[in-house]
Design brief:
The protein is α/β, with parallel strands linked by helices and 242 residues long. The protein has one domain: Alpha/Beta hydrolase fold, catalytic domain (Rossmann fold). Helices cover 31% and strands 21% of the residues. The strands form three sheets. It has a six-stranded parallel β-sheet with strand order 2-1-5-6-10-11, sandwiched between helices. A three-stranded mixed β-sheet has the order 3-4-9, with no helix packed on it. α7 links the parallel β10 and β11. α1 packs across α9 and α2 crosses α3.
Amino acid sequence: MTTSTTPATVVLIHGAWHGPWCFDKVVEGLEARGVPVVAVERRRMHEASGTLRGVTDSDENEAIVRAALDQVEGPIVALGHSFGGVSLTTAPLGNDNVKHLVYLTAIMPDIDGSMPDNFANPVLVGAIQAGEDGSTTVQEDLIRQIFYGQCSDEDFERAMSELVRDEAAIPLGDAPRDTAWSKITTTYVVCTEDQALLAEGQRTLARRADRVAEWATDHSPFFSAPHLMVDLLDGLAREYGA
């Protein structure tokens, strides 16, 4: 493996109901190692409520992430977590700076729109609650079990103070017109203790990737095992750097 003295920029794409804040420990760890990093903001202000809402429209997500990628000079390693894998699949298309993709226990759609039957945990599906305006959240008493089973009390409390509603239901079955993972080298990280997206379904999607890693973590390794993310991304940034 050839390493570079000038690492690629790592671009981090958060999942549903979350925000760039969830990557704070990873950003800090990468910056300490001299790796440039950008955490994309996939939320926007909802005018009627005056609160941030997570964007779920696939085209708008693609535009948001594409704009963030376009602002980076030089090579990029891009990571999508959970629902962040949707925009990771399309936004890098046509951007020659994007050298590697990382799906972290993430949706990894193909052009036929199919997803493994054993991917989304029925507990998560049943816990998603829609409001009168169509926005969604997750049943509060199940959030820790689903997302943060291995996280500290401090990190869980931080998450509970930061989570936002999403604009609408997550479109798991959206079919992209093309896939970046079929053109750009890709790593899929299976989180075996994930209670949101089940390991066997993750492994099915991971067959599309060039490399596969398995971590014995919950859905949120950015909290429960940030060192694993930092080590992986630091290595990839140097491998694919200039």
